Amino acid sequence: MLQNSLNKNKNNTNTNKHKMESLKEVGYVVALFLHSNEPDMLMTSVESMKFIAGSGIQDNPRYFNAVTKRGKPNLRHVSLIEEEMINIHKEKFNSDKITYASVRSNIITKDINLVNLVGKTILIGSTAIVRFSNKRDPCYKMDRIEKGLMKEMLNGNQGVVAEILVSGDVRIGDVIRVV
User: pLDDT, tens digit, for every residue of 100-159?
Assistant: First the structure.
């Protein structure tokens, strides 16, 4: 019985890995969200956002011109996660509580494997250019959605963070591609 359960989990992990690996280097913006001033408030869905090079997302008050604990500029300007990854988590936890807004990313994408592009320069829309700097680290808030979700999101299962290199507007439906 235990061996069957272990094999089932291994098969699910392999299937999920295959789903993400089949994604390409070109994708689309599916949804956009801004943080509020308060850390535990729901994120606000928007149709478009303005990226400001070296500063972050305009009207994203908690993170615009943010600095690290050491007083240096925070280069984690924008967070992105794949719609496909959200769906994998929803399926694994059999949960409708795992939504675009609840995973707390600024951009939800489709058809692009973000983690495979860490270190690359990316064009979003016609003018905004970012560099995918790191895999995104999940925070404790993920376990408020579903117990165990934070651990599940480790090791590249929660998208990426990016530094904004060139200012520009980003809209739902925009193409995302490597430059």
Answer: 998 999 999 999 999 999 999 999 999 999 999 999 988 888 988 889 998 998 877 889
Answer for the pair 140, 20: CB distance below 8 angstroms, yes or no. no
Angle between helices 83-93 and 2-21 (to 10 degrees): 170
Dist CA 100 CA 116 (whole Å): 21
Picking from 148, 172, 170, the residue whose alpha carbon sits closest to that of residue 52 is 170
Residue 124 CA neighbour count, 13 Å, CB half: 37
Q: Which residue reads 């520009």 in tokens?
A: 168
Q: Torsion-angle region of residue 148: left (phi > 0), alpha (psi -120 to 50) or beta? A: left
Domains of the chain: 24-178 (2.40.33.20)
pTM assigned to the model: 0.85
Tokens (6 digits) for 94: 């059999």
Answer for the pair 57, 63: CB distance below 8 angstroms, yes or no: yes
Would you mind telling me the total number of residues written for the chain in this entry? 179
